Amino acid sequence: MTAASPDGHGLWLGDTRLLSEFRLLLDGREPHARGLRGEGGWLAFELVAGDLQVLRERYVDGGLHERITITNQGSSWIHSDLVLEFGADFAAMFAVRGIVRELPPQEGKEPEILIRPSGRRHPLELGPGERFSLVIGAPVGHEAGAWDFDAGLARIRDSYRSWANDCATFETDNSALNELLTQSRDDMRMLLDQYATGIYPTGGLPWFAVPFGRDALFTSSFALPMNPSVARGALRFQAAHQGRRVDPSTDEEPGKILHEVRDGEVVERGLWPHILYGTVDATPLFLCVLAESIDWTGDTALLDELMPAAEAALAWCDTYGDKDGDGYLEYGVGVEARNQGWKDSNDSLTNIDGTDVLRPAALCEVQGYLYRGLLGMARKRPELKARAAEFRRRFNRDFWIARERFVAQALDGSKRKVEAITSNPGHCLWTGILPAARAREVAMRLVSPEMNSGWGIRTLSNRAVNYDPCSYHNGSVWPHDCALAAAGLRRAGLAREAELVARAILEAGMAFADRRLPELWCGGDRVPGSPPDDYRNSCSPQNWAAASAFQMINTLLGLEADSSRGRLRIAPVEMSLWKRLEVTGLHFAGERIDFSVEGERVKVGRVARGIKVDLGSG
Prior knowledge:
This protein is α+β, with helices and mostly antiparallel strands. The chain is 32% helix and 21% strand.
C-alpha cells in the first residue's frame, strides 16, 4: 500500500487512515506478484524475487496482521537484505476523497507496528530449502504481544464458519455461481464486521459511508431469507439514532432515519457531522423493511419494540418529509448532496434536455417506498390501508407519462413531470404501486435494448441526451437497482423477464475476475466473450451489491413469506445457470427449511409443525 495511490490505499479505522505505507523490499526491490489465494477472511499473496519465494498471509481482526515467509527455492545459498517500510499520515477519508480541504498531518504520531522478530531490516542468509518468517501487526489499540497470528487466524476462520452456519446456503451445479455466492456471503460478513469495528484495509478508494441508511435497509431486505439478524441489527440501530430535533446543519428532523455516520478528524474539527440525515428515502424504507422482516421472521416482539420508531417515521412522512403539503415525499437542497435519493450524484436528476430540475423534487421510487410502507404498517394501523389505496390512485394520476407509457422520474418544484426515462420505476414495480397494465408497460421498456445492456438495466436510457455508460448514475448498471427491478418484474407476473435481469447480474458477477459483484459497472452493450466494463471508482466489495446476489436467488425461487399464517411460497423459474439448486437452512418464521430445485420442481425436506410450504411455478 502506498499513500501516493489515487485510490486511498491504507489501513483505516473508521474515517482515519492509520497506515498509509507498507512495502516489503528484497535488496531494494519489491518482489513480483505471482498468485493470490483467499478464503473466509484470510488472504495469501504469493510473490517471487529470483530464487526466493515470498508468502504473505494476512487477515484483519482488531487491526492488520500479516505473516511473511521467505523460502530459498534455489540450489545455492542466498544472501539478501529484507527491509520493511511503513508510514502513517492519519489522513481523513474525506480529505483523501477531496470532499474537504486537505488537513495538516498530525505531528508526532507514529504507526503502532509490532514486528516479531523485531526490526524493520533483516539480513537473510538462507541455504537451499531454508526459510525465514516474521509476523507483523498494526493492532490498533491492542497491547503489544496481546495477539498471536495463528490463534487470531483460527479465530477469524471460526467467525466466518459461524456466520456461514447462521446463513442459508445456496449450492448449485454451477461452480462459478457457487463461487460468486460464497464470495458474496463472505463479503457481507467482512463488511458487517468492518462496520461494527470500523477497521478495514482497502486497495480501492473508500467511497462508501457506514451502512446505516438506505444501503443497510436494502442489504437487510435482500438478506432476510438468508440471515434475518442483519435486519434486526440495522433496524434497531436506526431506531436508536432516529432524528429527535430540527437541525439544518445535519438535515436532522424528528422521526427521520439517518443517512450516514462519520468519525475522525473531520468530525472532531467540526468539518463534517458525526451523523447526517440527508436522505429522503431511508425513512419510508425503514417502514418497508420492518414490515418485511415480520413477514419473514414472525417476530412480533420486534414489531412491538420498534413500533414507536415506526410511528415517528410515519409522522415525519406526513410533516417534514412533505415539503409542500401535497402528500408526496420531497427533498430540497440539503447539507451534503444536491440529490437525496439513492441516485445521489449532483447530475442524477435532470430534465430530458439535460437541464437541472427545480427543487423540491418528489422521486417516483420514494413514493413507492411510502406506499409499501403504509401497507406494511396497516397490520398495526388498519386505517393506513385506505390511505395507501388513495395514495396509489394519486400517484398513477400524477406520475404517469401517457405519451411514453412510463413513469416520470420525479415531480419538480412546480409539479411538472421529470420525463427522463430511468431505472427508478423498476423500484415502483417492487413496491406494487403500479396497476397491472402499467406495470407491464414499464417492465417491457426496462428489459428493452434501450434500458437493458445485457449486463443489467441501465440507470438512464441510452437515448437520453446526457446518457453516459461510464457515468455514476446516468447510464451505468447497479446490482441493487436491478435486484429491485427483477423482484418487481416477478411481482408483476413477468417471470421470464425477471429471470433475464437476474441472470444478467449474476453472470456479470461471475465474469469479474474475483467472482464479486461490485457497486456498479458501466452500462455499455454486452459484447460476447468480454466481461462488463468496470467502473473506475466502483466500491468492491460493497454490502448492498453483495446482498443483491441473494435477492436475485430469492426472485428466481419466487419466495413469498407470510409468517402470520405460517405459509411460505416457493415458485422457481427454470434457470439456464443451473440444473439443480440445493437450499439448506432457509430462515422462515424462526425455523430453518431445506429444499432442492430442479427446473420448476421443488422437493422440500422436513418442515416444522405449523409451517406450510406452497409450491408453485414461474
